[in-house]
Amino acid sequence: MNKILSLVAVCVLALSGAVRAAESPALTAIIALEPTSKKDGMMLSRTGMATSLGKLVGSPVTVSASEDLADVMRATRSAGYDVFVAPPQVAASALQHGYELVGSTDRAEQYLLIGRNSLASAKNARGARIYLPQQDSIYTYMARGMLNANGLSLKDLSDVRYERYPQAGLTALAIGASDLTVVRQSDWDEWANGNPGMAKVLATSTPVPGGLSVVVKKELPPEMRTKMTAWFANSAPAMGLKPVTVHDDLREYKSVAELGVFTPLSLPGATLVHANEVQELVAQGAVLVDARNDKEYGAKHIPGAVLIPYVEKSLKDIAFDAKQDDFSGLAKLDLSKPTIFACNGPECWKSYKASRAAISKGMKTVYWFRGGLPEWEASGMTVARQ
After folding, report:
1. Average pLDDT, stretch 78-97?
2. Taking the CB of residue 249, how many other CB atoms lie within 10 A of it?
3. Are 146 and 205 in contact (CB under 8 A)?
4. Parallel, antiparallel, or unpaired for β 339-342 and 366-369?
5. CA 367, CA 305: separation in Å to the nearest integer?
6. How are strands ordered across the β-sheet holding 27-32?
7. Average pLDDT over residues 230-235
8. Residue 215: helix, strand or coil by DSSP?
9. Are residues 275 and 370 in the same domain?
10. What domain count does the chain have?
11. Which of 4, 259, 291, 335 places its Cα 20 to 30 Å from the Cα of 366?
């Protein structure tokens, strides 16, 4: 009898353990790679990382990888992953949307705007050609920031070439295929030593966190976050990732987040509104348009918001080319009704561009909710989910 009871007890314990494991929510992590860090990403074992982290935190962990930085940036705004292992601009965005910094793999570094010798300064670069990696790369962030500091937009240049390998921009400049490019200080020092007098530094950025940065959701249990911090510092190298032991000043991430990326503070023809005003306007019958994509809308949105996606391919810039985008959904709106446009906060350009499109089509009363969903939540307002 005692043997039977013992066996039953063992089975119950095993079953309860299985139930607890089944109930443990799976954690998600993504490794986002710049073109120049692709080699490091190929060395990293995602399977090994998932297994090791899973054992550490006692929950299943899935690890994915992506080179589509625009998509990864959207995921930071919608809290799409529990952990981001990513370039500094991705981490900077996540830190504004409910994440905390674990650290980075390398010390901070500076980026340089390099130009032909015939250019007297960055201010004289209007009409020049520039070579950059993809739109959401750290190099493009730095280019916008340094140009903005000199009173220029990327739109003020005659040609913006988006390629994949930043160092190739120096070659393009040397052979006359480009007038400007952006590189890291270390890459410039090496290239300039071998190619003296072929180009010059026109502008220098503030320090930028180096290598890959790691951020985790603040809402994860403190004990779990502490364990993961220790894992990235000590166990990550066994999986092919450099130890995450550099703790940069958070102000450096804030500077990256603001470099030529935030939408303007006003929009001629529209009224800038905040969360409490949006709530009042909707109660009075104004239409609230969510310009994000259906996945983001489905995850969470402002109650009563109508989904009309702004499909964005143009530059995140005041001088964007609306012809590159698709906002055909504007035709569904009544131009005579007061309408509010919102998306994912100050660094999301979709609601700004949607507001501009509505104004250009003759919409009489346009409100722009620049703070969008992040401000709505920060104000303590409830959200809806599909």
Report:
1. 93
2. 11
3. yes
4. parallel
5. 14
6. 61-66, 27-32, 83-86, 208-217, 99-109
7. 96
8. strand
9. yes
10. 3
11. 259
Paired residues of 369 in beta bridges = 342
In whole angstroms, what is the distance from residue 357 CA to residue 80 CA?
Answer: 29
Q: Alpha carbon of 49 to those of 57, 217, 229: distances in Å?
A: 12, 18, 14
Q: Rounded distance, CA 141 to CA 164, Å?
A: 15
| CATH number (domain holding residue 152) | 3.40.190.10
Q: Which amino acid is at 78?
A: S
Q: How far is CA 165 from CA 121, 224, 341, in A?
A: 25, 37, 36
CA 317, 129, 175: angle at the middle one, nearest 5?
150
Same domain, 70 and 200: no
Q: Quick one: pLDDT at residue 37?
A: 61
The answer to whether residue 386 sits within a structural domain is no
Q: Are residue 80 and residue 219 in the same domain, yes or no?
A: yes
Q: Report yes or no: 119 and 128 within 8 Å, Cβ to Cβ.
A: yes
In the numeric block, the tokens 């501009």 are attached to 356
Alpha-carbon distance of 9 to 3, in angstroms, equals 10
Q: Which residue has the tokens 């070659």?
A: 171
Backbone dihedral region for residue 318 (phi beyond 0: left; psi -120 to 50: alpha; all else: beta): alpha
Q: 228 with 352, same domain?
A: no
pLDDT at 227 > cutoff 90: yes
Q: Answer whether residue 200 shows pLDDT above 90.
A: yes
Domain hosting residue 127, numbered range: 111-204
pLDDT tens sequence across 9-38: 444 344 444 444 445 578 999 999 876 566
Q: Are residues 58 and 24 in contact, defined by beta-carbon separation less than 8 angstroms?
A: yes
pLDDT in tens, 307-338: 999 999 988 877 788 999 999 999 999 999 99
Q: Give me the sheet containing 306-307, strands edge to edge.
A: 271-272, 366-369, 339-342, 287-290, 306-307
Query: How far is the C-alpha of 119 from the C-alpha of 108, rounded, in Å?
Result: 28
The amino acid at residue 294 is D
Do 81 and 196 share a structural domain? no
- CA–CA gap between residue 79 and residue 385 (Å, rounded): 14
Tell me if residue 117 falls in helix, strand or coil. coil
CA distance 234 to 109: 23
